[in-house]
From TrEMBL:
GO cellular component: cytoplasm; nucleus; RQC complex
UniProt keyword Cytoplasm present: yes
Molecular functions (GO terms): ribosomal large subunit binding; tRNA binding
Recorded family membership: Belongs to the NEMF family.
Residue runs in coiled coils: 299-336
Pfam families: NFACT-C (PF11923), NFACT-R_1 (PF05670), NFACT_N (PF05833)
Bias type Acidic residues, positions: 659-671
Protein name: Nuclear export mediator factor NEMF homolog
Ranges of compositional bias, category Basic residues: 796-807
Residues of the NFACT RNA-binding domain: 493-603
One BP term from GO: rescue of stalled ribosome
Native organism: Cephus cinctus (Wheat stem sawfly)
Length: 980
């Protein structure tokens, strides 16, 4: 397969691409370290010029995948070439070197593209001083390709062919039998394709050889005429545009149906249809540039087609090998039977001779003769003409055998019987001639039975092989169609997952991607999540709808930020934080330079609780449009139901904890308890709402409503008659207090991930010290009274548990408890303070509450979301990103039509409802092995359908492993069996 330009291709391309002269450079991109795209523009005319070091240059209409962050060489070209006009495009001498000049005079810059050997791209200034070079190296002793060196133009060739006298000398020095093309090619600049063409045109056969097809004395004038014809072809290419031709090869399918056509694989591209290619299939294009673009653009698709074709051929070859193996086995068994039968017949007909040979050898062994002495004795007997000794050809005394050369003694009289050929036969010295013949007859009988069994099992074996081959062909076809349909999403170049509530979360793999994510993909309404750890990824939660991002999604994004940091290798539990998009800036107020991937955060950081280092690897499936509706609300926000009755949230009895002050008593009067979902009434019967501010990392409950997310199935109960507080929550984790960094707010943690931020009003601050003393005195009295009132004793094990809780929560003093009660009590000052501080609150407008809902709903920390003034008037519908995310599901059902599978690495809690998932924790296993093991787990699952198996097999191992964070331990049911 042709992959690079020759001199004739370069000449035709330069002639055609003169139309680009005068266009300005709009931007420069890099596809990989060798291939670069230069986007050119002139008024409304646009085009993209592709430069690949060592191989090709042409314009392209194909959408090539660009690198996420530009390379250093791209940045250097952008710096010097952007907005410069392409002034000239020419070939250096007659070499495979192209000079592109951008700008004029002292502002001129040159790109030198070398298309020979390993190739190179060099950026120079107007004096041809090298500013940057793709591949620095040294040619010979003097020529150096490095920055600040002069580019050596003088080494380029200046002629297409040497003089005629020199050609005569080259031919005369050639050895007889050498290929004429091979001799001429190093001395000519035409290229092998053009040389073949002109030689065929002149009447020489393809692959012409010296002194065989080419006579030096007679055919030299014809050769010179052919080379002049090649020179004329080059001169025409400089003046006229050339057509393009892609030469193809017909690849027949192994099982060709009437509907299926043969595959035509592209093998070469040329500016003209050469004589040697006229009998091959080809595609013609208006210009050579279009042909080259088509050739390289379809190369990947062609590779997929040819790979699938080769897999089909291999499967059918295996089936054919099974058939051949069975046939060969039957033939071998037949031959074995025939040989054993003949050996037995010969032994029977030479019975006396065989018995005498056995007796002679047994006598020698009985006399305790050594084996060398027996050999000497045998040679002496053979020299005397002893017929018994003459029949013994070899001694195999180590196996107690001898080899006799036996022939048919009745050959002349047995004309009707089949001919018995003389042969060497091994005779066992432990048995008589008759017993040896019997042994060979038994072997013949055993081979006959084996042949019969082979014939009987042949049908079953072939059917099994055919079934397996059909299954393989079906899988190959399915995987090939999946790879054709596979759409690579834009976010797959980053770390990514879709949260439990259908938010797209992306994170950078390195500093360049962190920079790109913030600059290109962080939009108004999105949230930025990060962790104060080395190597932590910059994570962005995409929020196209403009709604408040739920706490569960924030917690999952925080887990992702921590997992892709040094915390994973160190196995350290840490926390992350989040800010609004308008708090992230690249400019520092002091004018300090921020490195790539670093950003300035303005205002308050909202810290998330420490997260566990538990990630998961799962698979999502792309649904056909008709199946999307079945999974409409699969990842929706789960919140409390407004219509449910007060206090109906279920609480597990075994997850109830009590928080006490100085006392060990854990009893409370049930009559004095109130729940968070209740509302207080003052003396006038007015309904008051407690001012409670919640952090967004509070998880959503399993019930649903149309309002904002609230506390997760949590009842917080307080005893208003005494100083002790009894809190009933859905977790047994510790209760902590932290102080806000920038605002005077008190944060009370109900468990590691259930914080309540309480903002006290002025009145509560003044009365705190006065009430503290009375609370302590009242505590001692109520302790004794409570013990007398409630005869129930703590349950078994509860006392020790409460002792541990008391030790954990000893830092929670009376002031904190008082503030918590103050925030939840029915007070008229709550609404007044709320109105006063509305404009002072830096975190933006509060969440809207529905009136008369019958519940108190805590407000999360506010996220600054810009809403257009005309948002209510015009509904633009769901964002395209949401539609795209809805097409992916982790819970496929039998009725779904699935197009392809996408591997996803996410916090394990996100993947709980997925059909295919494994748990990843920090460990010692390599990512590639973990990916293969996970895929084996999924394929062995009995619930896996055949279509899902095909989709999973179509995913490459490197695609599965690329997002796994470092060394891992993989956990799944019965995984040890699969590893074994």
């Amino acid at each position: 397969m042709k992959t690079r330009f020759n001199t004739y291709d370069i000449l035709c391309s330069i002639t055609e691409l003169q139309r680009l002269v005068g266009m300005r450079v709009n931007q420069v991109y890099d596809i990989d370290h060798r291939t670069y795209l230069v986007r050119l523009q002139r008024s409304e005319e646009k085009c993209v010029l592709l430069l690949e070091s060592g191989n090709r240059f042409h314009t392209t209409a194909f959408e090539w995948p660009k690198n996420v962050a530009p390379s250093g060489f791209s940045m250097k070209m952008r710096k010097h070439l952007k907005n410069k006009r392409l002034e000239s495009l020419k070939q250096v001498g007659v070499d495979r070197i192209i000079d592109l000049q951008f700008g004029s005079g002292e502002a001129a810059y040159h790109i030198i593209l070398e298309l020979y050997d390993r190739g190179n791209i060099v950026l120079t200034d107007y004096e041809m001083t090298i500013l940057n070079v793709l591949r620095p190296h040294t040619e010979g002793d003097k020529i150096r390709f490095a920055v600040r060196e002069k580019y050596p133009f003088g080494r380029a060739h200046t002629r297409n062919m040497p003089p005629v006298e020199e050609i005569y000398e080259i031919i005369n020095k050639a050895k007889p039998g050498e290929s004429l093309k091979k001799i001429l090619n190093p001395h000519l600049e035409f290229g092998s394709a053009v040389i073949d063409h002109v030689l065929l045109k002149s009447g020489f056969p393809l692959g012409c050889k010296i002194n065989k097809d080419f006579n030096v004395s007679e055919d030299m004038p014809k050769l010179i005429s052919a080379l002049e014809n090649a020179n004329q072809i080059f001169n025409n290419a400089k003046q006229n545009l050339s057509k393009g031709y892609i030469i193809q090869r017909r690849e027949a399918k192994p099982l060709q149906n009437e509907k299926e056509e043969c595959i035509f694989a592209n093998i070469e591209f040329h500016p003209m249809l050469f004589e040697q290619h006229k009998d091959q299939p080809y595609k013609e294009f208006e210009t050579f540039d279009l042909a080259v673009d088509e050739y390289f653009s379809t190369m990947e698709g062609q590779k997929l087609d040819l790979k699938a074709l080769q897999q089909e051929r291999d499967a059918l070859k295996k089936l054919e090998n099974v058939r051949k193996d069975h046939d060969q086995r039957l033939i071998s068994l037949e031959k074995t039977q025939e040989v054993d039968k003949q050996k037995a017949e010969l032994i029977t007909r030479n019975q006396r001779l065989v018995d005498n040979a056995i007796l002679a050898m047994q006598s020698a062994l009985a006399n305790q003769m050594s084996w060398p002495d027996i050999q000497v004795l045998l040679k002496e007997a053979q020299s005397r003409g002893d017929p018994v000794a003459g029949a013994i050809k070899q001694l195999k005394l180590e196996t107690n055998n001898i080899s006799l050369f036996l022939s048919n003694p009745y050959e002349d009289s047995d004309e009707e019987e089949p001919e018995l050929k003389p042969m060497m036969i091994d005779i066992d010295l432990a048995h008589s001639a008759f017993a040896n013949a019997q042994r060979y007859y038994n072997q013949k009988r055993s081979a006959s039975k084996k042949q019969q069994k082979t014939i009987e099992s042949q049908g079953k074996a072939l059917k099994s092989a055919e079934k397996k081959t059909k299954q393989t062909l079906k899988e190959v076809k399915a995987i090939h169609s999946i790879n054709k349909l596979r759409k690579v999403y834009w976010f797959e170049k980053f770390y990514w997952f879709i949260s439990s509530e259908n938010y797209l979360v992306i994170g950078g793999r390195d500093q360049q991607q962190n920079e790109l994510i913030v600059k290109r993909y962080l939009r108004s309404g999105d949230l930025y999540v990060h962790a104060d750890l080395t190597g932590a990824s910059s994570v962005v939660i995409k929020n196209p709808t403009g709604d408040v991002v739920p706490p569960k999604t924030l917690a999952e994004a925080g887990t992702m930020a921590v997992a892709y940091s040094v915390a994973w290798e160190a196995k350290v539990v840490a926390g992350a934080w989040w800010v609004n998009s308008d708090q992230v800036s690249k400019s520092a107020p002091t004018g300090e330079y921020l490195t790539t991937g670093s950003f300035m955060i303005r205002g308050k950081k909202n810290y998330l609780p420490p997260c566990q280092l538990v990630m998961g690897l799962g698979f999502m499936f792309r649904l056909e449009d008709g199946s999307v509706e079945r999974h409409k609300d699969e990842r929706k926000i789960r919140i409390l139901d407004e219509d449910s009755e007060i206090g109906e949230a279920p609480v597990d009895s075994d997850k109830e904890i009590e928080l006490e002050g100085e006392s060990d008593d854990n009893d409370e009067d049930a009559e004095d308890k109130i729940t968070l979902s209740q509302i207080d009434e003052n003396e006038d019967g007015e309904v008051k709402e407690a001012e409670v501010k919640s952090n967004p990392q509070i998880e959503s409950s399993d019930s649903e409503t149309n309002d904002k997310p609230q506390f997760p199935d949590t009842q917080i109960k307080f005893d208003l008659s005494g100083p002790r507080i009894k809190v009933q929550v859905d977790t047994t984790q510790s209760l902590k207090k932290i102080e806000s960094q920038e605002e005077e707010e008190n944060v009370v943690y109900l468990g590691d991930d259930k914080p309540i931020i309480v903002k006290p009003n002025d009145k509560s601050k003044k009365n705190t010290n006065q009430e503290k003393d009375s609370i302590q005195k009242q505590d001692a009295r109520n302790e004794k009274e409570t013990k007398q009132k409630d005869p129930n004793l703590p349950k078994r094990g509860q006392k020790a548990r409460l002792k541990k809780i008391k030790e954990k929560y000893k830092d929670q003093d009376e002031e904190d408890r008082r503030l918590l009660m103050e925030a939840l009590k029915s007070a008229g000052t709550a609404k007044e303070d709320k109105r006063k501080n509305k404009n002072k609150d830096p975190s933006g407008p509060k969440q809207n509450k529905k009136k008369g809902s019958g519940q108190i709903k805590p407000n999360p920390i506010q996220q600054n979301i810009r809403v257009d003034d005309n948002a209510e008037e015009e509904d633009v519908g769901p964002a395209p990103e949401i539609d795209m995310l809805n097409q992916l599901t982790g819970k496929p059902i039998a009725e779904d039509e699935l197009l392809f599978a996408v591997p996803v690495v996410a916090p394990y809690n996100t993947l709980l409802n997925y059909k295919y998932k494994v748990k990843l924790t920090p460990g010692t296993g390599k990512r590639g092995k973990a990916a293969k093991t996970a895929l084996a787990v999924f394929l062995r699952d009995k619930a896996t359908t055949s279509r899902e198996k095909d989709l999973l097999k179509a995913v490459k191992d490197e695609t599965i492993a690329r997002n796994i964070p470092g060394k891992v331990k993989i956990s799944a049911p019965q995984i040890q069996k699969i590893k074994k």
